[in-house]
Amino acid sequence: MSERHPVLRRIGRLFQPDGREPGETEPPSTSGKAVPRQAAGSEHRTHNIFEAAAAYVTASIDDDQEQQDEAAGWVQPEALCFGINELACRAVIALARERDESPRDVARTLLGLPAV
Fold first, then answer.
1. Rounded Cα distance, 72 and 85, in Å
2. How far apart are CA 101 and CA 115, in angstroms?
3. Which residues, in sequence order, are CB contacts of 58 under 8 Å at separation 6+?
4. How many C-beta atoms surround the C-beta of residue 53 within 10 A?
5. pLDDT, tens digit, 9 for 90 and up, residues 19-75
6. How many CB atoms lie within 10 A of CB 97?
7. Taking CA 92 as the corner, what is the angle to CA 79 and CA 51, rounded to the nearest 5 degrees?
8. Distance CA 106, CA 88 (A)
């Protein structure tokens, strides 16, 4: 039962910017051998989908195209999309709790849509 379903493996890889499955210590390589991790203190570090989403959205708010492009390059486009969606969901839920309103009403208000 230790073998994970292929769909679960694929979803898990979204959370690892270098394609590793959660729990793996080394990123996969095409030769089948583990690729050494970057040395501590090196200039390039990997980012997860939530860091990329947060950086991308805040850069959008600041109208900083250069930072948006950089954040978009940290992860695969599908992973960035997932992270932005998750950020939006969490933001709407937090605002709904803060305002004591339904998430649906908050989302519609944020988008400038009429109340239902």
1. 14
2. 12
3. 67
4. 24
5. 555 555 555 555 554 444 444 444 567 889 999 999 999 999 999 999 999 999 999
6. 11
7. 35
8. 11
pTM over 0.90: no
Query: Within a 10 A sphere around the Cβ of 45, how many other Cβ atoms?
Result: 11
HSE toward the beta carbon, residue 90, CA cutoff 13 A: 9
CA gap 69, 92 in Å, rounded: 25
- Label residues 55-76 b or e (16+ Cβ within 10 Å = b): bbbebeeeeeeeebeebeebbb
Whether 82 and 14 have beta carbons less than 8 Å apart is answered as yes
| Burial (0-12, 13-18, 19+ Cβ within 10 Å), 79 | buried
DSSP class per residue in 80-104? HHHHHHHHHHHHHHHHHHHHTS-HH
pLDDT, one tens digit per residue, over 66-102 is 999 999 999 999 999 999 999 999 999 999 999 999 9
